[in-house]
Amino acid sequence: MTSANPRIDETAIAALQNALAAEHAAIWCYALAVAFLSGADAARAREDENAHRELRNQVEETLTQLGAPAVSAQPAYATPRPVTDPASAAQLAAVAETDALAAWRSVLERSRDRALRQAVLDTLSAGTLRCARWRAAIGQAPTIPVFPGQP
Amino acid sequence: MSTAWSRRRVLAGLLLLPPAVAGCALGRAAGPDEPDPLIALADAARADAALAAAAVAADQGLASALQPLVEARTQHAAALDAEIARLNPSRPTPAPAARPSGRPGRSEVQQAVLASGRAAGNVALAMPPERVGLVASVAACCSTYAEVLV
């Protein structure tokens, strides 16, 4: 496939698809997590889910413009641990954010387009803040990851 | 909000960029005589760690907010130094940061780490693939500290 933008080649498109898959998973994780959360945590989970929905829409739109069919969400995802209570729900949110950060960092490593890189840098910063809030909720130290997105 | 909107425009508008703009993706590569751009980022990491440590020394009440930042910026400096040394093994060990003057407070640290995050973000835009991840992670960590310290 030939990309319409010469700076965004097949490698970058594959990385964007991987980031899109992580966004699909994050949306699914938040939908599950919010059922076990209440009060401020539930409100934040909804807010974060919306942030991921917006991001998902942007990536799908970008892939469409690049002429690549966007990957679909899976019907369900395996959670690393069973989600049964507020603590395990917050933990799932932290995992979803950590996975998304890794996928986005990998887009940077596979793209040289400056505009795309700037957008992904903003995405990494916003995701690091979301991740830090859930890490704080589950008492994971340091609250702010030192190298966000590093595998 | 404004960040989300500008990001939307950038992500959605990638192909709307004129080819001349979209094409010049990378900045000028550093010439052989130009210093490694990571040196300034490593120095900033050391300076931020020293500044935050001085703020904690001046006010122990800041320890819970700033001690993790001291440790994060120390780890950033070490990782950046290792990457600098990978390309230039003969580089001498960098000098430790100068002791900050006065009694820095939370807002000085916030401003320093905000500037460091922006500087790392700017450098990341033009980094080769094997370096961009590290620099971008440093930028995201700094900008998040800047956000929570406001």
**Approximately how much beta-strand content do the residues of chain B carry?**
under 5%
Q: How would you state the average pLDDT of chain A, rounded?
A: 94
Largest sheet of chain A: none
CATH superfamily of chain A: Ferritin, core subunit, four-helix bundle
Average pLDDT number of chain B: 85
Oligomer: heterodimer
Classify the secondary structure makeup of chain B into a structural class: mainly alpha
Number of E-type strands of chain B? 0
Greatest interface (CB-CB under 8 A), with counts per chain: A-B, 48 and 45 residues
**Termini separation of chain B (Å)?**
17 Å
CATH topology of chain B: Ferritin
Number of domains of chain B: 1
Give the low-confidence spans of chain A.
none
Number of helices of chain A: 4
Rg of chain A (CA only): 16 Å
Shape descriptor of chain B: globular
Integer-rounded radius of gyration of chain B: 17 Å
Classify the helix fraction of chain B into a percent range. Answer: 55-70%
Task: Please indicate the percent range of residues of chain A in DSSP E strands (runs of 2 or more).
Answer: under 5%
Tally of alpha and pi helices of chain B: 6
Structure explained in plain terms:
- The complex is a heterodimer of chains A (151) and B (150).
- Chain A is mainly alpha-helical.
- Chain A has one domain (10-137): Up-down Bundle (Ferritin).
- Chain A is 66% helix and 0% strand.
- Chain A has helices at 10-34, 39-65, 86-109, 114-137.
- The relative contact order of chain A is 0.18.
- The model of chain A has no long low-confidence stretch (mean pLDDT 94).
- Chain B has 150 residues and is mainly alpha-helical.
- Chain B has one domain: Ferritin (Up-down Bundle), CATH 1.20.1260.
- Chain B is built from 6 helices and no strands.
- The longest helix of chain B has 25 residues, at 63-87.
- In chain B, 39% of the residues are buried.
- The chains are: A mainly alpha (151), B mainly alpha (150).
